[in-house]
Write a structure and sequence with these properties.
By secondary structure, the chain is of the alpha/beta class. It folds into two domains: 254 residues, FAD/NAD(P)-binding domain (3-Layer(bba) Sandwich), CATH 3.50.50; 227 residues, Alpha-Beta Complex (Polyamine Oxidase, Chain A, domain 2), CATH 3.90.660.10. The chain has 15 helices and 23 strands. The longest helix has 24 residues. It comes from Lynx canadensis (Canada lynx). Keywords: FAD, Flavoprotein.
Amino acid sequence: MQSCESSGDSANDPLSRGLRRRGQPRVVVIGAGLAGLAAAKALLEQGFTDVTVLEASTCIGGRVQSVKLGHATFELGATWIHGSHGNPIYHLAEANGLLEETTDGERSVGRISLYSKNGVACYLTNRGHRIPKDVVEEFSDLYNEVYNLTQEFFRHGKPVNAESQNSVGVFTREEVRNRIRDDPDDPEATKCLKLAMIQQYLKVESCESSSHSMDDVSLSAFGEWTEIPGAHHIIPSGFIRVVELLAEGIPAHVIQLGKPVRCVHWDQASARPRGPEIEPRGEGDHNLDAGEGGQGGEEPRGDGRDEDEQWPVLVECEDCEVIPADHVIVTVSLGVLKRQYTSFFRPGLPTEKVAAIHRLGIGTTDKIFLEFEEPFWGPECNSIQFVWEDEAESGTLTYPPELWYRKICGFDVLYPPERYGHVLSGWICGEEALVMEKCDDEAVAEICTEMLRQFTGNPNIPKPRRILRSAWGSNPYFRGSYSYTQVGSSGADVEKLAKPLPYTESSKLAQGSSSEQQPGHLLSSKCSEQSLDPNRGSIKPMQVLFSGEATHRKYYSTTHGALLSGQREAARLIEMYQDLFQQGT
């Protein structure tokens, strides 16, 4: 079994004693997305040498997934750098020349960023009619006025009335509807079109929030999300280039790919049974061949560790390897935490952290790329938006599985065509996106083509020559796209999710575990044949740290939020060990 060098604890000063003996704490980072790579890079740059990154999939990047087809790169995951002023992703990309090919048309400052700010969005109805440009502009102005009102509840402490159900969707829908109905100048036909457009706009908003519906998004917390000033940018060569830049400073042996984690056993040294007997390697050899997932040669114990000392954390992998550590930085998505928190941590998580996981939201936003031989849209068209006239009076948008396609809000035209060819990028979110993920490519391409024919009124639109789509909801390593503040949650829940374990006495929350958790603290049954010895010791601080976009209170759902959260957790450990490193240990 592959294993790692040992660390030490003592009743009086476990931190100092361990460092005096070994010189280095061991840190395991779970996940090689932006948060995990940012954390590992920051630790390595500050002199930490015993760092291991475990990535479940076969590639780095997490929810950054750039796919190259021909000469073009398509983003199945993160697409835009949102804002430039003080955005670390922007500065990293700019400093390395990744934005040099970005056209003026791709530098949009609009709230809803498309691939081009040139041209116009074509709003089409299911009857094959185009909504007049002046009607679209009037509605857009009205919707944006109401959108700005949704920000005031948090930013100005405005009370939320009962009618809104503390829901962005409910508030927006009713406020916009009332204003449309009260307008004395619009004829009834125009009012009907504008009422139908509400649902289309809310579908777009849901895709941006990665919620099933904007009805699920908290009105009182909505304004806490903070937009970084400046233009939105894409990276023509692929967002994955940012990931690769972060990884360049990390030695290859640090990152282990195809290494899913089954369970994090924490608080081992205080009152838990001792973990499995682990055959440690000699000093500095624990990552040998790790970049290939190989097993390094075993060496005699060389870390000066007492036989009765205990690791505070044991990271149990799916292949039954157990990696001991002083600290673990968990960067898995909120979707994975929701699905696996009862089995992923032993002992179970504190009650209030579990409650935060339940209250916060994460949904699925998927893209559908369609490539055509020739464009059937005009050169002035930058997107095709679907408006269902029969949804003018609808409430929450939830469709039966066979009507999943009605959740597609529209298709953006990828720009410029010289780079991408003739490609449309469709958007779908929520439960309907999960239904779409279960369909095969042929079925999705057929349905999308029929929709385009219906809404454009052009029955001669050919099927696309190629389709490419994402599947974030059904991917077991993500279980969703990104997080949002669900009705009933707030920024305080984000803080609780981010709080390291174990809690300190001064900030201790109820540490009762969920009734759903597994009893005891033994390894999972697949590895239960390994022996356990009892041992007690002192509690070591910050054994389990949490990062990832869902843990950033102001920038959740963004790539810069993910990167900053990884740096934040690394900074906790850097500060913790700063004095001891300065002593030259």
